[in-house]
Design goal:
The complex is a heterodimer of chains A (460) and B (369). Chain A has 460 residues and is an alpha/beta fold. Chain A has three domains: 14-80, no CATH class; 84-217 and 354-421, 3-Layer(aba) Sandwich (Rossmann fold), CATH 3.40.50.2300; 220-346, Response regulator (Rossmann fold, 3-Layer(aba) Sandwich). Chain A has twelve helices and 17 strands. In chain A, strand 9, helix 6 (247-262) and strand 10 (269-273) form a beta-alpha-beta unit. Chain A is globular. Chain B is mostly beta strands and 369 residues long. Chain B has a single domain (52-309, 322-329, 341-361), classed as YVTN repeat-like/Quinoprotein amine dehydrogenase (Methylamine Dehydrogenase, Chain H). Chain B contains two helices and 32 strands. Chain B has helices spanning 2-9, 12-19, and strands at 23-27, 38-44, 55-61, 64-69, 72-77, 80-85, 96-101, 108-112, 115-120, 123-127, 139-145, 148-153, 156-161, 167-170, 182-187, 191-196, 200-205, 210-214, 223-224, 236-242, 247-252, 255-259, 264-267, 279-285, 288-293, 296-301, 306-312, 319-324, 330-335, 344-350, 353-358, 361-367. In chain B, the strands form seven sheets. In chain B, strands 1-29-28-27-26-25-24 form a seven-stranded antiparallel beta sheet. A four-stranded antiparallel beta sheet of chain B has the order 2-32-31-30, with no helix packed on it. The chains are: A alpha/beta (460), B mainly beta (369). Chains A and B meet through strand 3 and helix 4 of A and strand 19 of B.
Chain lengths: 460, 369
Amino acid sequence: MNTQSTAVARLCILAGVLAGSAWPQSALSQTTAPSQATGKTAGQPAAAAPYANMPQQAVPYRRFRKPYQEWYVAPSTLAYDGGARSVPDGDLAHLQAVNIGFLGPLDKDNYDSQYGIPMLHGAQLAVEEANARGGDRGKPFALLVHDDLPLWGASSMAIVDMYFNQHVWAMLGSVDSASTHIELRATLKLELPIMDTATNDPTVTETRIPWLMHDFPDDRQQGYALADYIFNQRKLKKIGLLQVNNRYGREGDRIFFDTARRMRRQPEVVLKFTPSDTDFSSQLHTLNASGIDGLVIWGDARQAGMILKQMRAMGMRQPVFGSSRIAYPEVMKIAGPAAEGLVVVTPLDPTRTDPQWQQFRQRYQARFHTGPDAYAAYAFDGMNVLLAAIQKAGLNRGRIMDALRDYEMKPYRGVSGTAFFDYALNDIAPITFAQIQNGQFVYWPEHRTDWKSKPMGFAR
Amino acid sequence: MRIAAQLRKVSSQWRALLGAGLLVLAAAGAAAQNPPLYTKWVNYTQANGFPAGEVFCVTVDGSRVWAGTEHGLVLLEDGRVKKIFTTADGMVSNAVMSVAVDKQTGDVWIATFGGASVYSAGQFRNYTSLSSGLANDLVYGVAVQGKYVWLATTAGASRLNTYNGSWSIFNETNAPFQEPWAYSIAVSAKKVYIAAWGGGVVVYDIAGQYWRPYTDPDGEMEIVLYRNQGLIHNIVSSVSYNPDTKMFWASTYFGLSGYDGRNWHNYLTKDSGLISNFINGVQSRGNEVWACTQGGLSELDYKTNTWVTYRPDRKTGRGEVLITYPDGKKSRMETPTSLAHNYILNMDFQGKDIWVATAQGLSHGIRQP
């Protein structure tokens, strides 16, 4: 499917029109929203639709009973009755700059820096462009950068430093889900707005803490999309699951596994590999012997490339599917022809031709001498949301949080596409699929079998 | 006239309360047994020399009261702020999250967002992850259990043997922590209770030296399958052990859970008098269970299943007392004074009185006879 059709069909899942809402983005005049929004706008009773665009087939205990309580589906999800709004505003006249914190993996020895550096660049570009437009009432925004170290918990003091020493008004970060949870726990005490643009962990927005907004497609969205595609559209029945044994892999495949189980397609075998493994023959022999008719890899592009190369050399011809961190050209570089046919979920379609994306690519290329990836695009969007919230609310962290909460059950159209934020301030907009065909990724929009088609008018 | 007519019906206890300045505005359940009420509040805020902003914790030590703020550790004696300890006095950080007093030595242990400190013999000694066995410098909770000091950090629980200075760290590698993010610690004579953010309540048996986790049995973040299914949610903000009932209570941002050793007892706003499901802390003694919520301070009388919530009335500035009786009937009263703020982070007992840490000041609640 080409990009043109993508633009038309991208968000065809949508079940209700949010007529009359006060859009955070005034450009969005007529649209529809993901199914959780059915017939509801902020301030109205909870929608009956499942949380986070959960497929009906994936609803926990659906054959057993209705839960006693359901969370995250009501406007009160992030209700805040604290005192942050009544803290005296910062005095802009006495500030040299409006400080914004950044936490991300940047050290090139840190494997996650491949995500953290583009994230920093996206955030930097947004700040530089905002400053070129006049900053915050004439004062520039300043991005104060902290490296998120790979050692567990080593970055935990970053948010304390930002808050007490650098007096930031909000922050953006991080990639690692553990670091993001640590930020989140600290900010519940410190009350500092956080924009997270990169973690896959869906639980960061499942804490009811109102101080965090998340604009990156998480593992719930990826898991639901993959399960529907594999079992309902490709009609496969016996799936193997191969996951990297780190937090990304362990947390990431949980939703896919549970969804598959609830669709009565529980994976035949689940195997792990370490982040340093290069030989996957043991796992592949086991997978082959189990008679699978498809394989899902939850890992990164480098190891997925090696797995593909080795499994094709063994004569395994099963279709392979992967998580979003596999959607990088590196997988083709390593696997070569063995990567043909690989299907992955991805947060971004970089072949989009809409002016917003194309112009962003040009500006980013001119600034950083490389093209933007998903982490750059989402950080650019997230930082712009954050800066707009500060400009709207003034230098008061409680009101900045309120301005972020204005996005509940509303879309935001950015360079990464169109996000849609649920009551937990999580982006639940549909994601993108990509398949390697003739040595390059070909993209198409997620279209689940349980979604009724309605035109959205724009696409991610 | 209507109010006067209602007042004639209330018990002698209600009359006593009225004499103390309590106004009964609605008394739908006034004929029911009423719990003792806190009708007088004395507040410590920026207006009378208390640090501005949130009060993260409060700990009573006899006649002394310790309060943790982001601007230092406040010591109150005889109802007055005696001293505000900061890094200038040698404390490791000004952001104080939790305080525990060693009853044997009088040492004051302080959990901060920069490590841990102990105030002993007029001096501070500091512990950080670089200088000690502290698992991480973000320390949320501290408790003293015999010779051990337990500290809840963002990378697991640390235990200091104060007799020999040795440290132990407990996290997902050596204990059944689903997540290692410890948030609060409570101790009993036999057990240590750790509130683990995302990991439920993890309990250490001191004699047996083994751990037992208590987690949300439905396994899903987005639902509660049954009301009394077990722990109501894995994101636990605080835990409290009640030596009188031998129950432990866990506060979550998804309601309140209590465990009596056999059954769980869960409470949500929709099925009880709990004022908010977002609960920052819990304390329990006797038949009392106190939930520090973002909407006010809710007290459950566990024996009678009667709830009382205290919060400021935002319109009048007076105190608001909401009572929910076992039959579901409710009554509302006003008091001339109120909690400093409705967003409650922590509380502690001082005899019959209570001290409450709020988003904007410390409150001393005085119970009427």
